[in-house]
Every structure is written in C-alpha cells, then in structure tokens.
Amino acid sequence: MLGACRWLALEVKYPDPVADFYRTHLDAPVVADSDREVTLGVGGNSELRLRRPDGVPRGGLHTHYAMACPADAYDAWWDRLDEAFDLQEVDFGGMSSLYFYDPEGNCVEIGSRADPAGTSEPTLSGIFEVVFEVEDLPTAETFYTDLGFEIVDRGDERKRTRLTTGPFDIELWEPHLGLADARGGVHVDVGVVSQNPMQAADSVAARVTRRESVEEGLRIRDPDGHYLTLVDQ
Fold it and tell me: Ramachandran region of residue 225, left (φ > 0), alpha (ψ -120 to 50) or beta?
C-alpha cells in the first residue's frame, strides 16, 4: 500500500546557504523556491525541502537520512567528498555507505543501493531511508506496521527497528547516538507514495494526533510528532 519516499523536509534558519551547500557538494538542482522553502532534486522522484521554522510542519532537526547512488558511482562520490569532509564508511555486506554532516547537523548518508547505471559519474537515485526518533519503540513499531510498513530488522546493541515499504525504509530509534554519531530526527516531515491514502490513514486513525487534506495528499501526524503526507500514487 505504501511506496517510495517523495520528499524529506529539513528545518533550516536560512535556506539559501544550505541549498548552496547541497548544490556545491551533491549537484542537487533547485526545482522550486519560495519565501519559506527551497526544494532540491536528489535523484529519481525524490526531493529535499529546506524549510524555515515559521510554520508547521517545521521539517526535521538533526535528521539522519540516506540517498541511494548507483553501485558504479559510489567510488566517485567517495573521491569527490573525501576532499571536503572527514568521511565515515560502513560496509553492509557488499553494499557500502559513506556519512558526512551538512551545516545544520543533519547526518547525510550516500549508499550504493541502486543498480549499476553504466557510468562512474557521481549521481543520486533518490532518498531510501530516514531515521525518526521515538519515545517508545514498541508503540512506534505498532503504529508504523499498522500504517503499512514491514519490520525487517531490529538492533542488537542499539534500540532501533528498521521497517520498509520496499523502496523506502525508516528506522525508529529511541534516543541514542547511532552510526557516525547520528541522531534520529525530531518533528520529521516526509512524503510517501500510497496506493490508497485514505485507507492507510484510516488504519491508524485512533492514534494520529492530526489529520488533514493538503494539496499533495493526506497528511497525518504520528504520536511522536512526525508528519507523513500520503501521496496518491
């Protein structure tokens, strides 16, 4: 019922300098610009939205999120970013990820999660993971499995649960420092494709703390204050 991540919003005081950061280091083009928000394309149909904190949803703070790159582009990303950042790397059994931080303290991950593109140019294939900080892991697990996510992994040493829609994963973390000293995001705002937004929202209707129709779909707020917009496929 749920599909890919359409966007992730991050809270920034001043969007333009942070947009310049992403344009410089990731070649992310500006696809929309307003007084409150600058929207960047990060491959596929995914967007990164840099949002001023003068309304709600605010956008996530210190959010750990991951973008996919074609397998044959990973080394090019490493070579390019290693000049500017003290990169960290984790090997997930043949699939590697590199980590660095943006100016607002968000932990940015680029992982070799997409099929080879036939080119070694550093390109991106969209957002495939976002980490949410939650107060109580079992309660949050139940909410997101009822919404349509499937649990695929639980942490042994850290209080975390990984869930997926197939093309998009979320990790739920009780407060702690994770890989690359990342933290789960607070008041995260994401857009997720849904085959039936109304049915998905109805499945958790008794537990959402806000529900409203918006231009891009049906927006709900979970018990931890994270917003999800269910975008009609």
Answer: left
